[in-house]
């Protein structure tokens, strides 16, 4: 029988990121160190972990060329070094990577192995261009972001096949079905959910994606008030493939939540409750 001590431990890192990169990286380093001390082998940072600026265009001034190690990529260099230093696999939330357009960047979710090597890059597919019902809040991510290609991205890790998604992607179940079809056992959803949408839909959406695809969901979120005046929801989550809550952040501040991942349970659920193979296309 697999015991809890035999299972890999994963961390969802919640942040209240502010308007300057250096303090956010220092804060992320402390949180990653805490995750490693508590036995995590995989840590997932939230969307926009390195910068939640006062203005949407702030990300343009800190955008980096793709690829760490040239001295001009402090965010990517930080993630690679933290992975090596703490012996952690790290999903780097999202970071702004330069595109061919001077006024737009890619919202990139990178994955680093514990030796510091980047092993995957996912550019957020669905951009948050919405006005919130019964609210003055409105967002248009496409003004400063370039959407990635609509391709499911799954990477092999020591903890199982890892599927990548970001925030607003949670509202598009077809992406998660595609990730499951590619063999994903764990799916990450680093997010910066608004307090308005999060209080209505965050738990429902993350649980639904876990349940319908029989995957472990790791969903770290931004939390609290930011430089722009925006308030994010927090409640970073880890859910098992039956949709059961394994860990949840309770504050609106920086926090690390950790849970074990039972790969044998994922396999047994999919064998005994084979809804993925019962799918019919219309």
From TrEMBL:
Please give the InterPro entries that the UniProt record associates with this protein: C-N_Hydrolase (IPR003010), C-N_Hydrolase_sf (IPR036526), Nit1/2_C-N_Hydrolase (IPR045254), UPF0012_CS (IPR001110)
Task: Please name the SUPFAM superfamilies in this protein's record.
Answer: Carbon-nitrogen hydrolase
Q: Where is the signal peptide?
A: none
Q: Name one Pfam family in it.
A: CN_hydrolase
What does the UniProt keyword field contain? Hydrolase
Enzyme class comes to hydrolase
Residue ranges annotated as transmembrane are none
Q: So what EC number does this one have?
A: 3.5.5.1
Spell out the protein name for this chain: Nitrilase protein
Q: Name one GO molecular function term.
A: hydrolase activity, acting on carbon-nitrogen (but not peptide) bonds, in linear amides
Q: Which organism is it from?
A: Salinisphaera shabanensis E1L3A
Boundaries of each CN hydrolase domain copy? 8-263
Similarity section: Belongs to the carbon-nitrogen hydrolase superfamily. NIT1/NIT2 family.
Gene3D superfamilies assigned to the protein according to its UniProt record, in alphabetical order: Carbon-nitrogen hydrolase
